[in-house]
């Protein structure tokens, strides 16, 4: 089990409610094709937390690469306005944070942490302000 955090390129505030929904739908498709199971997904406007489980033979780097590449491609297809904000043509930063999660106590703590992402009102206001800047 892994906790994966992927920041948006330039730490831009691009994960709107519709982008959040798209990422969740894409992850359901990834789960069908790969042995990657999404236990929780939490978005926080400029990054996404995933609590995932996979088979032991799948390397963590491969898991992160699969998730990042497929979600980026599909988000750009379905949300061209996001690609406009990220002038470099990449959705995610090159790096990511990934750590193993133990069963029981640490799993529950990480699950709750991932669930609580995006609940901050300041981020919502920042998102609105940023979209206002780019609409002109």
Task: Please tell me about this protein's structure.
The N and C termini lie far apart (44 Å). The radius of gyration is 15 Å and the shape is globular. It is of the alpha+beta class. Mean pLDDT is 85; it is low at 129-136. Helix 1 crosses helix 2 (60-78). It has 5 helices and 4 strands; from the N terminus they run βαββααβαα. It has one domain (2-134): 2-Layer Sandwich (Alpha-Beta Plaits).
Please name the fourth-level CATH homologous superfamily: Transposase IS200-like
Total discrete domains = 1
Largest beta-sheet characterization: 4 strands, antiparallel
Mean of residue pLDDT?
85
Query: Which second-level CATH architecture applies?
Result: 2-Layer Sandwich
Total beta strands: 4
Structural class by SSE content: alpha+beta
Kindly provide the radius of gyration, computed on alpha-carbon positions and rounded to a whole number of angstroms. Answer: 15 Å
Sum up the structure in keywords.
four-stranded antiparallel sheet, globular, alpha+beta
Task: Explain the layout of strands and helices.
Elements: E1 2-7, H1 17-33, E2 36-43, E3 47-54, H2 60-78, H3 80-85, E4 97-100, H4 105-115, H5 121-134
Antiparallel strand pairs: 1-3, 1-4, 2-3
Concise overview:
It is built from 5 helices and 4 strands; from the N terminus they run E-H-E-E-H-H-E-H-H.
């Amino acid at each position: 089990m892994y906790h994966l955090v992927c920041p948006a390129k330039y730490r831009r505030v691009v994960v709107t409610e519709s982008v959040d929904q798209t990422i969740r739908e894409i992850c359901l498709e990834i789960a069908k094709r790969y042995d990657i199971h999404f236990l929780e997904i939490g978005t926080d406007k400029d990054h996404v937390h995933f609590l995932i489980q996979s088979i032991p033979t799948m390397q963590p780097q491969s898991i992160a690469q699969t998730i990042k590449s497929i979600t980026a491609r599909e988000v750009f297809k379905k949300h061209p306005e996001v690609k406009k904000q990220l002038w470099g043509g990449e959705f995610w930063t090159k790096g990511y944070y990934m750590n193993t999660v133990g069963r029981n106590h640490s799993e529950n703590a990480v699950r709750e942490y991932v669930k609580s992402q995006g609940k901050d009102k300041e981020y919502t206001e920042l998102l609105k302000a940023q979209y206002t800047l780019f609409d002109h």
